[in-house]
Amino acid sequence: MSAIILDGKATATIIKEELRQIVSTMKRKPGLGTVLVGDDPGSHSYVGGKHKDCAEVGINSIRIDLPATASQNDVLAAIKDLNNSSECTGYIVQLPVPKGINTNLLLESIDPAKDADGLHPLNLGKLVIGEKAPLPCTPRGILELLTRYSLSTSGKEVVVMGRGLTVGRPLALLLSQKGSDATVTITHTKTVDVISHTKRADIIVAAIGSAHFLRAEMIKPGAIVLDVGITRTEAGLLGDVHPDVAKIAAAIAPMPGGVGPMTRAMLLANVVEMAQIN
Predict the structure, then answer these.
(1) Domains of the chain: which residue ranges?
(2) Looking at the DSSP assignment, which residues form a beta bridge with residue 225?
(3) Which residue from 12, 28, 78, 202 has the fewest beta carbons nearer than 10 Å?
(4) What's the CATH number for 26-111?
(5) How far is CA 114 from the centre of its chain?
(6) Contact at 8 Å (CB) between 151 and 275?
(7) CA pseudo-torsion sign 151, 141, 118, 161
(8) Looking at the annotation, which residues are catalytic?
(9) Which region, left, alpha or beta, applies to residue 233 given φ > 0 means left and ψ of -120 to 50 means alpha?
(10) What average pLDDT values come out for the chain (278 residues) when binned by 10 residues?
(11) Cβ contact 154:183 at 8 Å
(12) CA 130 to CA 7: how far, in whole Å?
């Protein structure tokens, strides 16, 4: 058995073309802002990719790069500028930020109506009660990728490996809402006997940042597996899912090329939707 590859790169290309057509008809052009603090190569590459996506779709770009020596007040000032900018319809603060800066304070300072990452406490609260709000990009991208491949979550046992703010916790909420209708288990560092959970799952989302942690013997034949984790090693960037999983899974979203491009596409979708509403 060889798993079907859930091609996030190809799917994101389709979505970006759909968005480009929408943007071309809009009187008010969407504008994506980014606040990047520090010199992390991965963050710089990721933000650069987001602005490249904007150019392809026709979204205006507003980029604020601050040095690693920037203070918390410097970052808050950049956030205030984007809150007040008429050209910016949505923006993100690229995480992680350097030590000594309060991430939660930054997220709370973002105008909820411009919260392109869907991580403001108000928007996360709306997610809890099922009220419409900007959705966190990676969880939204995961559901969109499954939908585009006609893979239903309704009635399925889903294991989300990892309880982080950007993926695990909001994804579990999305999957358990009406319309998704999955039965969700979150595993984490204190979970006893992880295999007992993953072995019965119809769908597994691995988002723990532990290289090749999920192996073939941990899943049941025919499971759907999505790799979200990234670990830097001497061998390069590795995902959470070992290559041998593809031998028994029905479908797999690999790292790279699976969920990552979908995250970027959903960021664009959030920004376009914000421009349509506001």
Answers:
(1) 26-111, 137-260
(2) 204, 252
(3) 28
(4) 3.40.50.10860
(5) 17
(6) no
(7) positive
(8) 50, 94, 117
(9) beta
(10) 91 97 94 93 87 95 94 96 96 91 95 95 94 94 98 98 94 95 97 97 97 96 96 87 96 96 96 89
(11) no
(12) 29
pLDDT score at 42: 79
Homologous superfamily of the 137-260 domain (CATH): NAD(P)-binding Rossmann-like Domain (3.40.50.720)
Question: According to DSSP H, which parts of the chain are helical?
Answer: 8-24, 41-57, 72-84, 103-109, 121-129, 137-148, 168-176, 194-198, 259-277
DSSP string over 108-157? HHS-GGGBTTS-SHHHHHHHHHT---PPPHHHHHHHHHHHHTT---TT-E
Q: Are 94 and 48 in contact (CB under 8 A)?
A: no
d(CA 50, CA 144): 18
**Sign of the CA dihedral with 15 first, then 19, 20, and 21 last:** positive
Nearest to 182 by CA among 204, 209, 161: 204
Which residues contact residue 150 at a Cβ distance below 8 angstroms, ignoring those fewer than 6 apart? none
Q: What is the distance between the alpha carbons of residues 2 and 154, in angstroms, rounded to a whole number?
A: 24
Going by C-alpha positions, the residue among 118, 63, 85 that lies closest to residue 267 is 118
Residues facing residue 35 across a β-bridge: 64, 93
Asked if 26-111 and 137-260 have one fold, the answer is yes
For residues 248 and 233, the answer to whether their CB atoms sit within 8 Å is no
* Exposed/middle/buried for residue 100 (C-beta within 10 Å: 0-12, 13-18, 19+): exposed
Cα dist from 21 to 24, 244, 273, whole Å = 5, 40, 13
Q: In the prediction, which pLDDT does 278 show?
A: 67
